[in-house]
Amino acid sequence: MSNEGVINKADGEQKTSSHRTEGKNSNDDDFMDKFNQEMSSRMEDIAGNLRQSFESQLDNLQSKLAERSQGDMGVRQTTVLKVNKIFREVGQELDSDWEKVFEYLMQPFGQKVYDEAVFRLRRTSEVTRPYKALIEWKEAAGKDHFHIVNLSNALKSCRPELAVLVDNILNCDDNEDLFKLTRSISKKKTMEGRREPSKQLTNQIDNRIVLKLSKLIAADWRKVGECLGLDNELLDDLSITSSSQPEPHQKAFQMLTDWRLENGEKATKDKLVTCLKKGNFSKLAKELDGIKSSTKIGPDGEKIKKLTKAEKEEIKLRSEADKLRRSGEEYRNLLSRLEKWIEKEKESIFQCLRNIDTEECGMVSSQEFKSAMFDLNCPANKVETHLFAMLLDEDCSGNLKYNQLENGLSFCRNLEEFFPEDVVRPSLVLSKKKSTRWDGDWLKRDYVRYARVHFKHATFSEKRDHHTHFIQLVHSHATVSYLLQLVKERIALESNRLALFTDDSLTIEAQLPPASTLEECGISGGSYDKPQDVLLYYDYVVEFTGCPILNSDHYFA
């Protein structure tokens, strides 16, 4: 074989091998592409599963933490409610036994902490001192050493009834029952260890007097304290403890407060004036006499309780409603207006009141009734609505029987027939208004009774309809002379010789005295809607005073 043939053969083998290599490389690339695609899809699936698993576990963990935190918050809130209730109830009833209980509770903290706490407590009011003592114990114990059970153990020795109360509150699991739980302790003021209230409240010194007097004393507070008999040690303590309060009147205020606490009810205004005069503080004593106490005293010598804003509003509404109740014509117009409205809106009224009356007892409270009337656009203002509620509240219990409205306001009109005896008596009231015509009623009264008088001329009494017969509605306290004036005006009489009779016999026994009232003649009257019917006869004698012929006796001489 020639060299050329060998070379050609070698070139052919080389090309063949290169083709094989190229085919193998293309197959490897396709395999790697498929492998990479499959791996990426599997990795995405794994990442999605891991993400889903992580989110589900995270949600479960968050829900468990939320439940645990809510449970801890509920327990913490319940504990706070119980502690607050125990402190409030025990603080109100502990009185002078607070020192024994406080000493027992403060034993773990040492004598020094106890003395400092007592020193602070003695500068507080006697009323709030037991409660503040419990607060001092709680702050001294802290979160780690504060156990409310210790208070129950301390109370067992001196006040076992309060210990039972503390145990009941601690064992109460329901918050609603916790709020309903009250003290089972007698409220009598004669309880052993409790002070009786002072009867000389007008001579007591309140904070207002102490504040004004401390400003007058100012720099002389130590000399005044010595005049009042305070110990020098106490005055020295005031000088040290008052270093953060450099103002002299503040030291004077602390000194007077300590004097009041030491003397109790004996710390009267008269005693303070006497001590000041003995210490050559006559000017201060005179100033003290001019300072009035802010405590209001009743006629029985007891302190007058200050009314709240709601109580003042209630009293004002009741006063205006009573005034409207006695107004007569205005009150009757109100009843007529309300009766028409009730008849028109009866279904909506009862539907609204039944929705409020969840117990279906036929009763709602006064405030609920007034709110319902405002919601239903009742044609009445605030005072008229309050009067409406008062009429429904028969026993003044605050609960209204709305079933009475089934028959309108007839029950209100019937109330006018049962006025008490003391309001029937007439009373003289001076009126500023000048009447153009006298109506015979100078005796103004709160509750008026009425009589429907049927006037008949005695001569024509047998005739049923006669122009001299008429009917007139009058007050039962109107006088007979007023009725005679009505007769004269009605039939245009000129005669003054006129009389009224109870029957047509026209005897002296049947004649009514002109100066008497109808009530004095046995006619008591009734309500405006149901007046008492009375039949009276009148007769007169014609006087010939106006005839010129008869008056001229010249022709008959």
Automatic annotation (TrEMBL):
Any coiled-coil regions, as ranges: none
CDD domains: Death (cd01670)
GO terms under biological process: signal transduction
Death domain: residues covered: 206-292
Domain EF-hand: residue ranges: 344-379
Record-given protein name: DgyrCDS6243
Domain of life: Eukaryota
GO molecular function, one term: calcium ion binding
Basic and acidic residues bias: start-end ranges: 10-34
Pfam families (UniProt xref): Death
Stretches the record annotates as Disordered: 1-34
InterPro entries, A to Z: DEATH-like_dom_sf, Death_dom, EF-hand-dom_pair, EF_hand_dom
